[in-house]
Design goal:
The complex is a heterodimer of chains A (215) and B (321). Chain A has 215 residues and is mainly α. Chain A contains nine helices and two strands, in the order βαααααβαααα. In chain A, 69% of the residues lie in helices and 3% in strands. Chain B is of the alpha/beta class and 321 residues long. In chain B, the strands form two sheets. Chain B has a six-stranded mixed sheet, with helices on both faces. Classes of the chains: A mainly alpha (215), B alpha/beta (321).
Chain lengths: 215, 321
């Protein structure tokens, strides 16, 4: 499969919503160790609102779908996660402008722009032990997939695997951002909760797109 | 924070309760999510409006306490333990529609910075002049040699709210309010204080979400000694200037009794007299602090002008400051 339309993308995003909602307890447990324990709850509330919004709306354009997802997250969640995950869906919108269907190159560009927007807004970089460590791996995997001419499902699978590696790598890092920064060396040995959430999203998107593609 | 209510509807239900209880005092911004943006009535759009939009704290309505004549004009609350959303801040600004501008006052935590930053961008696109004012009063939240902007904020915001509001009410422009806040913040220092019962040590620098203390002292496992140590440390951080008057504020956590808070504050006030005149003391439960026995102690060393702003008394539905 070489392209996704808005309806297929909506199916994939809904799958990501379900996976995040199911993961509340796991995310809360992780965030309680080196944060203030709000991540699981916030993500569940935000992605539940996205799910409700998507279920009542039909989208003709991927742009409108992603904008609605991002704005809902910013509006409902608040906190660091609201802005950062909102920016994940809003930051790359230019790449989808005017497209009825999006291919691997469009999605690669979308993720590249989103990652840059998150780095700018969050003043973060690779190695800070944030969700960016997982996102940038996924983004680079998509860029490689676009260069190779891979299918959409293959690109999403590569992105999910790379994102998981990025999240795993955060275990050896000391937090440089957010409230967990104050836990200093105690953060070493645990993955960043935002990086884990990002991996959950990419894994759910990959599985959903593979199902859509009939694999 | 323990609650018997359904956490998913806590904000919405709490807003309804507040409006039911204090209809002359608060209203909600119509388009805010679950009513999370609360306005103090009546709206005064002809002056700089002070918006407090900082951390979830521990209760979704944890900022609503700070609204009164002389404190915040708007309080934006976040979700459970989450910073207020950029969207709600933006909606509040549009609803008030002040042409004199807005100050977004918030503690320097990442979620607060991100949301206020995004809100300011959205408001700027609509032609509103909004200034960001992150507060960095927690002197033990960063390394001793780190720049002040690496510090987070705790309860010093109560002093800054009074100053910003008084300046605005006196007809101060947005630039003037920011100038006064910048000066006031440079004369302000705060820290969290807890006690380790198992190891019998006083702990200094414990964060509002339980971030570990930076200083632990066995000789401070005592209210008076801990208060004196904290007072000395804060004064060292501020650097007292002759002629200034000291204002002391002690926040007690929900788990700390009034009796101990008064004794701790009195001991701190005694110690502060070593440096200068203590003009005013406030003791209360002004904001959420970790769910254990804890204090936050804040001192501002105020010149005549700041004293003028700080001497007004502000009543909320919860406290007098």
């Amino acid at each position: 499969m070489q392209q996704l339309d808005a309806s297929q993308l909506k199916t994939a995003v809904l799958a990501a919503c379900d996976r995040i909602i199911e993961s509340e307890q796991r995310l809360t447990e992780l965030d309680t160790i080196i944060g203030d324990g709000d991540h699981g709850f916030g993500m569940r509330v935000g992605f539940s609102a996205v799910k409700a919004q998507l279920q009542k709306t039909d989208y003709a354009m991927p742009f409108d779908l992603m904008k609605d997802v991002g704005m809902t997250l910013v509006k409902v969640m608040g906190g660091t996660s609201g802005v950062i995950y909102g920016t994940l869906f809003l930051g790359g919108l230019d790449a989808f402008e005017g497209q009825q269907k999006v291919d691997v190159a469009h999605i690669a560009s979308f993720l590249d722009l989103s990652a840059k927007a998150i780095a700018r807004r969050g003043r973060t970089q690779r190695g800070d032990k944030t969700m960016y460590d997982a996102l940038i791996e996924a983004s680079e995997a998509f860029n490689r997939a676009a260069a190779n001419g891979d299918s959409v499902e293959k690109a999403f699978r590569s992105a999910a695997e790379s994102s998981a590696k990025g999240a795993e790598a955060t275990k050896s890092m000391q937090s440089q951002k957010g409230r967990s920064k104050n836990f200093r060396e105690k953060t070493i040995g645990y993955p960043d909760t935002g990086a884990v959430s990002t991996t959950i999203i990419f894994e759910a998107l990959a599985s959903a797109v593979e199902t859509i593609a009939g694999r | 924070m323990f609650t018997m209510a359904n956490r998913d509807y806590l904000t919405k239900d709490c807003v309804s309760a507040m409006i039911r209880l204090f209809p002359d005092m608060v209203e909600t911004v119509p388009n805010s999510y679950n009513g999370r943006a609360l306005l103090r009535k009546p709206i005064e759009a002809d002056r700089v409006n002070i918006i407090i939009s900082t951390g979830g704290g521990g209760g979704p309505m944890s900022q609503a306490y700070a609204m009164s004549q002389g404190l915040a004009d708007v309080a934006i609350s976040g979700g459970d333990h989450a910073a207020p959303s950029a969207y709600d801040i933006y909606e509040a600004v549009k609803h008030i529609d002040s042409k004199k501008g807005y100050v977004f006052l918030y503690n320097n935590f990442m979620g607060d910075c991100l949301n206020n930053d995004m809100a300011e961008e959205l408001c700027r696109l609509d032609g509103y002049d909004c200034r960001l004012f992150p507060i960095h009063d927690d002197c033990l939240s960063a390394d001793a040699d780190a720049p002040r902007d690496e510090r987070t904020g705790i309860i010093g915001l109560m002093f800054l709210l009074k100053i910003a509001s008084a300046c605005s009410r006196n007809g101060g422009s947005l630039d003037q309010v920011i100038e006064e806040l910048t000066y006031a913040e440079s004369r302000l220092s705060t820290m969290g204080v807890t006690f380790d019962e198992k190891e019998r040590v006083g702990e200094f620098g414990t964060g509002i979400s339980g971030e570990p203390a930076r200083i632990r002292r066995a000789d401070c496992y005592d209210l008076r000694k801990a208060a004196a140590f904290a007072a000395d440390y804060l004064m060292e951080d501020i650097g007292y200037r002759p002629g200034e008057k000291l204002h002391l504020l002690v926040n007690r956590s929900f788990s700390t009794c009034y009796e101990d808070a008064y004794m701790f504050a009195a001991a701190a006030a005694d110690r502060l007299e070593k440096y200068g005149t203590v003009a005013q003391c406030s003791v209360g439960n002004y904001m959420f602090q970790i769910e254990r026995y804890a204090f936050a102690i804040s001192v501002i060393s105020a010149d005549e002008k700041l004293c003028g702003y700080l001497k007004q008394r502000c009543y909320t539905d919860s406290f007098l400051i």
